[in-house]
Amino acid sequence: MSGDAGEGLLLDAAAVDGWAAAADVVIVGFGMAGACAAIEARAAGASVIVIERTSGCTGSTSAAAGHFYLGGGTAVQQACGFEDSADEMARYLEAVALDPDHEKIRLYADGSVAHFDWLEAQGVPFDRSYYPQKNVVQPGRECLIWTGNEQVWPYREQAKPAPRGHKVAFDGEEGGGALALRLLSERAEAAGATIMADTKVEALVRDGGRIVGVKVRRFGETSFVRAGKAVVLAAGGFGQNAEMVAEHVPILASAYVQGSPHDDGLGIRLGEAAGGVAIHMDEPFLTSPFYPPEDLLKGVLVNRDGARFVAEDSYHSRSGIFSARQPDGIVYLIVDAAIFAYPHFASLTNQSLIDGFETIAEMETGLGLPAGSLQRTMADYNAHAAKGEDPAFHKYPKWLKPLEEGPFAAFDLSFGRAVYTGFTLGGLKVSADGVVLDAAGAAVPGLYAAGACASNIAQDSNGYASGTCLGEASFFGRRAGRHAATLV
Ligand SMILES: Cc1cc2nc3c(=O)[nH]c(=O)nc-3n(C[C@H](O)[C@H](O)[C@H](O)COP(=O)(O)OP(=O)(O)OC[C@H]3O[C@@H](n4cnc5c(N)ncnc54)[C@H](O)[C@@H]3O)c2cc1C
């Protein structure tokens, strides 16, 4: 989708009959990216108006667990005894990225420690503690956790692994993002940013080649807000726009799309109307976590051909996207009696148990897999696992054990039957300072974007690590706010 396409998303300044309000920097959306942009634009001396269509901070940030992907030797990593460096963090992000943006990765890795310190200085709390288990979100206040593929082959050979998921100190699996956003939004207001709540931005205003303001609607009344220097789009993703999902990431139409109900893609469409381009729009975050309990990682994933296809110890959105893209979406998780007997297996809520089988041969028939396929896969897996090896997918030795003692159980991870959740990752192409870029890579004057409506570090489900979205929304949101404030 490009250009205004008759949607009225771009107006000429000549059509504006008066400005109801004005500031140097006008920010669209008060989520993680908008709040951080506002704080930094104020710190740089600009006047700021943040326009938020809801009554408060209710974007996807409020739904987030509260992981920030940070490293390079943060205070928490040091306190917990983990060595990390900006170089290793950059190496990892380069290795795992779909389409690495070298400049942004370098800036993000080099600036990660200072960014962590900045978040703490704004009042966002992080415990000095480590959560050692493989989990999607740690249930308590513990901070540091492995949230990516750092220990997964081949990445563990390309960069020295370190845990980089930093969870906001919050008891519970949901609420860390909301806590961080409440604190940051209070900071933005205390710093002097004006918040216009219950106000929806409907169009950008352009004067000559430059974006100079926005058209807004509040309780049925239309007015215009002037931006003396720039407009920063921080309006979230497009997961709730069925048309855009069908056009770009149809796989999400069969999943439960999480996030803000206002993820309607308007931020992206506004940017496109002004001449910007969107990238990586066809890559979702998609997952069906089958851990915790972490013992289930010792199981084996097979497709409809009875063949393995991914290292089972991958971060859950990596195994999730590999699973969803298997032929017919058919995937089974196979475990033995010992794993099945693990006390907390009942916590597996995304996938249902198909059945138990006395032998692998019976399971093969029961699941309708090609004759001999599963038996061959398991015999091969078991022979190597007994030696602590996995030449096919290089699963980390900690998760390797022969699965030989029946009865065996199969869980259904098939796409369309198991619960898959996701959100969009694509967004406007922006410079490292958040400037919206056109197809030729030139700046759209006066227009910035950050957070889920822009594309920065998080690009696809394979390379995603929990914490990348909040990490980049805050990091590049700050850069956008700062840069916009210094425009002349
Ligand atoms: C369940 C869940 C858990 C997650 N957990 C994590 C996690 O732990 N770590 C992580 O890194 N990522 C996580 N994510 C992803 C992350 O939450 C988002 O990518 C991130 O919060 C996006 O921040 P944002 O500021 O770009 O957008 P948002 O937080 O969505 O903010 C955008 C704001 O813009 C407003 N808005 C939209 N359109 C307009 C308009 N036209 N006019 C005015 N205002 C508008 C919206 O109301 C909203 O308040 C999670 C996502 C979900 C759904």
From TrEMBL:
Cofactor: FAD
Keyword Phosphoprotein listed: no
Gene Ontology terms describing biological process: steroid metabolic process
Short name of any one Pfam family annotated for the protein: FAD_binding_2
Domain FAD-dependent oxidoreductase 2 FAD-binding, residue spans: 24-457
Signal peptide region: none
Keywords: FAD, Flavoprotein, Oxidoreductase
The keyword Oxidoreductase is assigned to this record: yes
Gene Ontology MF annotations: oxidoreductase activity
Top-rank taxon, per record: Bacteria
Name of the protein described by the UniProt record: Succinate dehydrogenase/fumarate reductase, flavoprotein subunit
Source organism of the structure: Edaphosphingomonas laterariae
